[in-house]
Design goal:
By secondary structure, the protein is of the alpha+beta class. The protein contains seven helices and eleven strands.
Length: 244
């Protein structure tokens, strides 16, 4: 539906100078703890032979995928895709800190906050979006490398940039394509060696995700029903004693 908001990012690789203003702005806006980050700038390193050398800097963050693996593995339903905006968000009140989504993300865009025991990542600064502003990283990008907007709106900055670019790339492979909503223009991601990875699971995590989690949820449900039944019996018994 073209009338539905579908937020996404466009990254103009040729404009990134690795100033890291976006990282500072994101940390200040979202109180990101030291040692962690919601966004990154990947450095391809020096390429070529002297004197024909080049270096590419590639900003990245959560891709807000169309089919996010993190949502699939979330045991508590804390990670979800917002149907109103297309953004992948985390309800930190519901997060149990199991970390499965961290391992499932092919872009390594999530981290487990050691102080709060919950998962955190880029959420496109919803408070800023509500007042009509762009995410903090976009607003402070000195070179204009980061763009954000409604991909379904032909008049948005991201749509105009894509239309003028003549072509874009996304971080996907034949094995991993969750439908990322960051589009890169004016740069070669393959040459820079940037690619998604396959989700990492240990054998125990696979068992937990496929078998133990449903069992635990069922046990919790049965326990709740048992407590409710016991409470009802006590209530009825109390009413009977009162009548007598």
């Amino acid at each position: 539906m073209l009338n539905q908001i579908h937020y996404g990012f466009v990254i103009d690789v040729s404009r990134c100078i690795d100033c890291r203003a976006c990282l500072v702005a994101c940390r200040a806006e979202n109180q990101v703890p030291l040692g962690h980050s919601r966004i990154w700038v990947r450095d391809s390193g020096l390429q070529g032979s002297f004197p024909d050398l080049s270096r590419t800097f590639i900003p990245t963050n959560c891709m807000h995928c169309d089919e996010p693996p993190c949502v699939e593995v979330c045991t508590s339903g804390a990670t979800y895709k917002d149907p109103a905006t297309g953004l992948v968000l985390v309800d930190q009140e519901a997060c149990i800190g199991c970390g499965l989504c961290v391992e499932a993300c092919p872009y390594e865009a999530r981290y487990l906050d050691p102080q709060r025991g919950v998962v955190d990542k880029c959420n496109a600064c919803p408070a800023r979006l509500e007042r009509g502003d762009t995410p903090a990283c976009v607003a402070t990008c000195l070179g204009g490398a980061r763009l954000f907007g409604d991909l379904n709106d032909p008049e948005s900055d991201v749509s105009k940039a894509l239309a003028k670019s003549g072509g874009s790339q996304r971080l996907v492979t034949a094995e991993t394509d969750p439908g990322p909503n960051i589009f890169y223009i004016n740069g070669d991601l393959q040459q820079a060696g940037l690619a998604p990875r396959l989700p990492r699971y240990t054998a125990s995590e696979s068992v937990w995700r496929k078998a133990a989690v449903p069992f635990v949820l069922a046990a919790i449900t049965l326990s709740f029903l048992g407590q409710a039944a016991a409470f009802t019996r006590q209530l009825l018994a109390g009413e009977k004693e009162f009548d007598e």
